[in-house]
């Protein structure tokens, strides 16, 4: 498939980017399997990823993994805001409480159901904005409907260059 992309300088200004989302198919091939520097970068990338967060969340290991959740500025217990239920091969994550946030996301009106702040290792800040109240999560921390979550902060800054295979295990 051939295509062309056109843009102007102003469209690349980060102030003009309100939301971004990419869908597609990827194929990962490890061309340097014994490179320890690359292996360390992959593990670091994974540890700061939404996959790691959700895997720890559904396995009830957030505190062990050094994650904290917040509603506005108050730290909260995940079980008061999110319920996890085991199914055959997936886990169902359900948002329990509407966290009363603004209905505008990136200047776009969306049906926002909740927002939780995330702090990792006491320094990396993110937030998750929920556009649906139920998600399915696999054993690797992959979400069923990624278009129904919006990330801000560190998670929101992650792009295609920080992708890992869906079945990545550190």
Average pLDDT reading: 83
Low-confidence stretches: none
Strand content: 25-35%
Compute the number of structural domains.
1
Number of helices: 4
SSE string, helix = H, strand = E? HHEEHEEEEEEEEH
Radius of gyration: 17 Å
Helix content: 10-25%
| First and last CA, distance | 34 Å
Main sheet properties? 5 strands, antiparallel
In words, what does this structure look like?
By secondary structure, this protein is α+β, with helices and mostly antiparallel strands. The chain has one domain (36-162). Helix content is 18%, strand content 26%. The chain has four helices and ten strands. It has a five-stranded antiparallel β-sheet. A three-stranded antiparallel β-sheet has the order 3-4-9. A two-stranded antiparallel sheet has the order 5-6. It is globular.
Walk me through the topology.
Blueprint (H helix, E strand, L loop, with lengths): L35 H12 L2 H9 L8 E5 L2 E3 L1 H4 E5 L4 E5 L8 E2 L2 E2 L4 E7 L3 E7 L3 E4 L11 E4 H5 L13
Antiparallel strand pairs: 1-2, 1-7, 3-4, 4-9, 5-6, 7-8, 8-10
């Amino acid at each position: 498939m051939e295509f062309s992309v056109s843009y102007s300088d102003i469209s690349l200004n980060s102030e003009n980017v309100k939301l971004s989302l990419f869908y597609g198919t990827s194929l990962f091939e490890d061309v340097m399997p014994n490179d320890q520097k690359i292996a360390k970068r992959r593990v670091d990338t994974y540890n700061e990823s939404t996959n790691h967060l959700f895997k720890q969340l559904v396995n009830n290991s957030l505190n062990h993994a050094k994650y904290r959740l917040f509603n506005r500025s108050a730290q909260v217990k995940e079980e008061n805001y999110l319920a996890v239920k085991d199914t055959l091969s997936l886990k169902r994550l359900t948002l329990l409480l509407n966290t009363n946030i603004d209905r505008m996301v990136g200047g776009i009106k969306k049906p926002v159901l909740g927002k939780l702040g995330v702090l990792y290792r006491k320094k990396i800040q993110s937030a998750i904005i929920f556009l649906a109240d139920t998600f399915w999560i696999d054993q690797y921390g992959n979400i069923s409907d990624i278009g129904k979550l919006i990330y801000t902060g560190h998670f929101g800054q992650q792009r295609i260059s920080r992708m890992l295979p869906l079945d990545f295990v550190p």
